Amino acid sequence: MILDGQTKVYGIFGYPVKHSKSPTFQTAAFLHLGINAVYVPFEVNPNDLEKAVESLKVLKIAGVNITIPHKENVINYVNELSEEVKIIKAANTIKNIDGYLIAYNTDWIGFVEGLKELEPNLEDKRVLVIGAGGSSRAVVYGLLRENVDKIYLANRTLPKVYNLIQEYKSHFRIIDKIITPISLQDIEGFLNNVDIIVNTTSVGLNDEDFPLFDYSLLKDSHIVVDIIYKETKLLKVAKEKGCKHQNGFPMLIYQGAKSFEIWTGQKAPVEIMKKSLNLE
Ligand code: ATR
């Protein structure tokens, strides 16, 4: 690839950002389609986020992804929020149109597209979602958009679940009928009621983490997604049981693919992006 005076710059704001895989697969996509652009990591200290977002205008950076811990705060510094960002209250993508910054959230669609690799028809499915933080808000938004039948939303801190339901109410009218809040202790009693199980918490990141529930109760008919980027204990047991299962990489690729499409207007070469991470 030859860089020149017209090379567009894209990137990712995170803290830390060293381990991000986005530069690898976004660059692979630009190269594959012959787009004159680069995608670089920017380590942005939380105290500097506002300045970093302003700098997008000064430096005419065409677009960035936003990752932990900036996804919530960044919405204070852009010119416009897309509809899904207003609801989810977190953004992972900014597009810079001549100095006018629009924030998007593509995590929800990344999650849905990834899950559809395991189960194309989400309508009428019953889902257990564990966690009620930022990732969970995107996952739940995606599931509601796909018209699932039921969401059992489990979290260590139950007020967060009530809060999410309250905030989503004006956008999804029958949400009270769809989402049932449950405590972590009650998960085992609901396993037979669900088709899909999604972990959005950080539990499992370390192998010593205490399990969220007794994983030996999984059945082979369960579809299990853990949005952590590795084979967690939960996924290991799901594999042993013969469940369809998935870690966080499909969601990562598809959220990035959607960001790519927002920025370039071109269809993202998803298979190429996956291949660049050795996921195929
Ligand atoms: P993210 O943006 O990745 O979702 P977050 O907003 O900090 O991160 O949310 C983290 C989620 O993991 C929350 O649901 C959190 O539970 P609480 O709301 O009770 O804090 C959950 N979580 C983190 N550590 C946990 C643990 N040890 N046991 C159970 N849940 C945990």
Automatic annotation (TrEMBL):
Q: Where is the Shikimate dehydrogenase substrate binding N-terminal domain?
A: 12-94
The GO terms describing molecular function are: NADP binding; shikimate 3-dehydrogenase (NADP+) activity
Residue numbers annotated as active site: K71 (proton acceptor)
| Chain coiled-coil ranges | none
The UniProt record gives the binding positions of shikimate as S20, K21, S22, T67, N92, D107, Y229, Q255
Q: Does the keyword rRNA processing apply?
A: no
Superkingdom classification of source = Bacteria
Q: Which Gene3D superfamilies match?
A: Leucine Dehydrogenase, chain A, domain 1, NAD(P)-binding Rossmann-like Domain
User: Its catalytic activity?
Assistant: shikimate + NADP(+) = 3-dehydroshikimate + NADPH + H(+)
What Pfam families does the record tag this protein with?
SDH_C, Shikimate_DH, Shikimate_dh_N
Write down the top EC class of this protein: oxidoreductase
Whether Membrane counts among this entry's keywords is no
InterPro entries per record = Aminoacid_DH-like_N_sf (IPR046346), NAD(P)-bd_dom_sf (IPR036291), SDH_C (IPR041121), Shikimate_DH (IPR011342), Shikimate_DH-bd_N (IPR013708), Shikimate_DH_fam (IPR022893), Shikm_DH/Glu-tRNA_Rdtase (IPR006151)
User: Which stretches make up the Quinate/shikimate 5-dehydrogenase/glutamyl-tRNA reductase domain?
Assistant: 119-202
One Gene Ontology term from the biological process aspect of the record? chorismate biosynthetic process
Residues annotated as binding NADP(+) are E83, G131, A132, G133, G134, S135, N155, R156, T157, L158, P159, K160, I227, G248
Q: What does this protein do?
A: Involved in the biosynthesis of the chorismate, which leads to the biosynthesis of aromatic amino acids. Catalyzes the reversible NADPH linked reduction of 3-dehydroshikimate (DHSA) to yield shikimate (SA).
Family annotation (PANTHER family): BIFUNCTIONAL 3-DEHYDROQUINATE DEHYDRATASE_SHIKIMATE DEHYDROGENASE, CHLOROPLASTIC, SHIKIMATE DEHYDROGENASE
Protein name, as recorded: Shikimate dehydrogenase (NADP(+))
